[in-house]
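FW: tagging you since you asked about this chain on Friday. Here's the raw sequence from the shared folder, copied in full. Didn't touch anything.
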Amino acid sequence: MSGAHARFIPGGAHLPLAAAAFALLAASCQKADNPPAAAAAAKTITTKSGASMAVIPAGWFEMGSAAGQRDEAPVHKVWIDALVMDTCEVTQDQYQALAVVNPSHFKAPDRPIEQISWAKAAVYCNKRSADEGIEPCYDEETALCNFEAGGYRLPTEAEWEYACRAGAGPDAGWWREGQLKDFAWFGENAAKTTHSVRQKKPNPWGLYDMLGNVAEWCNDRYDAGYYKISPDRNPRGPDKGKLYVLRGGAWNSKVEGCRPTYRIGENPGFQDACFARDAIGFRCVRKPSAAEVDCVVAQPPSAVH
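HL: got it, structure written out here
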């Protein structure tokens, strides 16, 4: 979608925000560890609510993979504007701090929140925005996402992949199979449960658990053929579709499912869910402030692999 809004239509039918669960509901810059040689170093900030976030530099990258599943192709060049992203998946402690019931199966304050529908993730984004005194992104009557607002929202699929890869090419990077256990909790090492955030190594932009632990909701609807028609600047997914995008794999995923380019389409309200509910969570993003943008420089075209 090229406009400023993306509509949430569970099951393909337009619903008001209340019906989708909405009625239920500057910091100094620091360098992240080990930035990739081809990418600008990410910076970390602490928000008013105490959350750690990374300021992701703007830049071009080659989205998708020619060696992956059919829906990961064609590989296409995409520009992503600078954004600010949670360094960790939203934890149960963070979720409950906004007086929201904790639905998680694997309960612990520092584990990621899970068993979260797309709508409930959007509810949290609005509450977090209000708590910090910034304009919410999700409209309470229409469930539209205003990308021009300064508040929190779910990342687009393109933003998520760009941040996850952190300057690396589509099929060879920090997540390579032999190193995956150092960065991710997945089927081979998670012992059939989630784990506390920040226990594995971060990616080169300082983001933890981008692969494994829990799969993460994106703002986009899922379309297996979307890459064939995707715009080359800040794509926001198709206008229509019953499924929404999950990225990153989870504690129960195989190695194949823990790749930055791997895509899943899931029912936003868990009806006929294919992915285990206790393997689904999210992290938040927002537009950077002018001061935060000054912390970073755009990733040069030479960083595209």
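FW: Helices lie at 92-96, 118-131, 157-165, 180-183, 290-293.
HL: agreed, and The CA atoms of residues 142 and 267 lie 19 Å apart.
FW: great, closing this out.
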